[in-house]
Design a protein that fits this description.
The complex is a heterodimer of chains A (637) and B (255). By secondary structure, chain A is α+β, with helices and mostly antiparallel strands. Chain A is 37% helix and 14% strand. Chain B is α+β, with helices and mostly antiparallel strands. The chains are: A alpha+beta (637), B alpha+beta (255). Chain A: Keywords: Flavoprotein, Oxidoreductase.
Chain lengths: 637, 255
Amino acid sequence: MELNARIPSGPIEEKWDNHRFEMKLVNPANKRKYDVIIVGSGLAGASAAATMGELGYRVKVFTYHDSPRRAHSIAAQGGINAAKNYQNDGDSVFRLFYDTVKGGDFRSREANVYRLAQISLNIIDQAVAQGVPFAREYGGQLANRSFGGAQVSRTFYARGQTGQQLLLGAYQALERQVAAGTVQVDTRSEMLDLVVIDGVARGIVTRDMLSGEIRSHVADAVVLGTGGYSNVFFLSTNAKACNVTATWRAHRRGAGFANPCYTQIHPTCIPPSGDYQSKLTLMSESLRNDGRIWVPKKEGDNRPASQIPEAERDYYLERLYPSFGNLTPRDIASRRAKEMVDAGHGVGERNNGVFLDFSHAIERLGADAISERYGNLFAMYEKITGEDPYKRPMRIYPAPHYTMGGLWVDYDLMSNVPGLFVIGEANFSDHGANRLGASALMQGLADGYFVVPMTIGNYLARVKPGGVDTSHAAFADVEREAKGRMDRLLSAQGSRTVDSFHIELGRLMWNACGMARSEEGLKDALKRIPELREQFWRDVRVPGSGATLNQSLEKAGRVADFMEFAEVMCWDALTRDESAGAHYRVEHTTDEGEAKRDDENFAHAAVWEFKGVGEDPVRHTEPLDFENVQLSQRSYK
Amino acid sequence: MRLTLHVWRQASSRDTGRFETFDAPDVSEHMSFLEMLDVVNERITQEGGEPIAFEHDCREGICGSCGMVVNGRPHGPQSLTTACQLHMRSFNDGDEIWIEPWRANSFPVIKDLVVDRSPFDRIIEAGGYISVRTGSAPDGNTFPVPKQFADEAFDAATCIGCGACVAACPNASAMLFTSAKVAHLGLLPQGQTERWDRVLGMVETHDEEGFGNCTNHGACQNACPKGISVDYIARLNRDLVKATLRARPAEAKDA
């Protein structure tokens, strides 16, 4: 597997500009001769489709939703960063770049991150021009707030619904292109596989989720904007339909999968309430600005919070991290919460949470001020738990959230399979081992609006349009395989539901490859995953037929791919014999219990090559150079 | 608690539907409404039946996927609450619950509780956007937006496109949905150049898609999980009258 990141030469500030100048261009009259397929309609996919349609390419978008507007980007709450320095507090492109590289625990690629920081300026302008209703100050100027991991106010927000508003902006731009005839959107169609001809990505095979029809689609380039995979844990903050299928299928066809073990565990979710639990709900990280986190000092103390006196409470984050307190980064806050619960200090009926307490803030500022800041979150919490957070502390616990791993891409966001581009959360490029707040929306939109529409031209200018159609034998082969897989799932007629397998896999992964990982646990998981997978194919029950809307069949196909993907995730966690950001190996901690990196041996991206189901995958590396930010130990004490 | 569910089952838009009754003997008050359906579906699957098809995704009340009529009310008995955020503590032991899909000719049933809401996308296509080329936007602070307008535009923009307004309206009108977008963009300085064309295009498509007219019942506002106000419909009507009195610059749009 050849891994050439193709990072442009020159000083970091000039790389993107120089590269754009050096790119080959496609003559505007020729652009309409090129077909581009985009899979996924979230922030990355929709913005890429709208922009490429505008540029003149023939674009086809595929989404499994009934409308592009449902993509999970819509659920993002907090905000989006941009180095505008509107607050005059010393922000700059370089500072955003610096914070992101450091926040990622020095496991991301400098050149990509710098470009992201540069483009952040254009994203805000673009969104404002589209009518995204960002918060404003009384003078009519854009408002900003601060967010975890940064000491400047650079986060733009639309109440607690920033993702929704940004996605609707991109969706509306996309629908405008649909009306103009440059983009076609196929809703309710799921990508089942990638078609590679002579080593080049030339199309995809989809299933029409209403008729069950399996169809081939040819293109000159394929773009995947299909999001992350944290539903491998079954319980996560992701929407129920989020899955790994598109990227996993591309991986099976030769695309390298980079850093799959980097999964962010978000500290402020509502703890599970029972075995029927279907997903977890994130409460905004902003709550930690005023909420104080604590547990009872005494193990197994089941008294209600109001009956536990101050002296018997352990405000453990404030105790351990006096300067950052409750605002320590996500990975640290998550780990400490798990330790408290594991040591028997958990609160709530199921002893599976820690308190996030607003009583001091309410005393200091009044209930009205707190309601103005967090009212919608408090209402949401009460709706879900039936408990009033104005009267008793919230209960929170960490949950799988964003995934920093993904398909390996070069500087142009092209995978190692020519013609296959990967954008947004689906690629691995910008966040390293840890993603800071308000940076996911930024990356999705940077990739979609500003990077891939340029770099894809650089690729297309070198290839002749067309030349292959769906009558090529490769399409028939892939269609046959996809049909075979569907038939096999439908005919197994075993005794267990799809969900029961997914839940079992999720538990296994959470225990072995969740917030803390050990060599022993990972080796055990690597033994048990193939057994579970074998049992799945033998004993799964998928009711109904393949010729209509069949939600069980859709789920079954996705869980089947999680069963294979889980293995490479554990391989990655096992071979990365260090702790970095969200990847925490219990064998590698500092004396103070923090993650301990090994820069000498692991300052690289690990990229996996597929060798067959059940075969050991092969590990390749892309060394990461840090020329502009010095490697240092993160400290939040 | 123990519940009895009467669920609308319909194999396709060509099939005639009917209610089917299910026993739900082990419902916890902590479950969301959709988790309760998950549990019922697991049992149906175990017993060799076909689970109830319903739409859902984020389960955080924001994607707009989940839509079902519960005991005659879109998204169920709680106000300002989507079906995924409705919890079983809103029901009592022994309750009978009737669950149906959105009812509107413009939203044909696909299967069980799943309906086709693609007309909403086509209404947006007809002008629910601001035309701006990627990369050509001026600095974000070039146009100041008074906070009051920004907040009002935001309130309108929170529509999740779930379709509850249509399901609740005796005329199956989508005016609340359409007016929310018209108001959101019409309240902002960026949205002024296309303001009149937008309202004409969106209302025309709204009618072509078979949605009825607004006759001021207000049921849409009561059903809306995001509290979108019928005031926006009044605003839309004012803009529509103004736009009709102007010559429609159709040629300009085609240029």
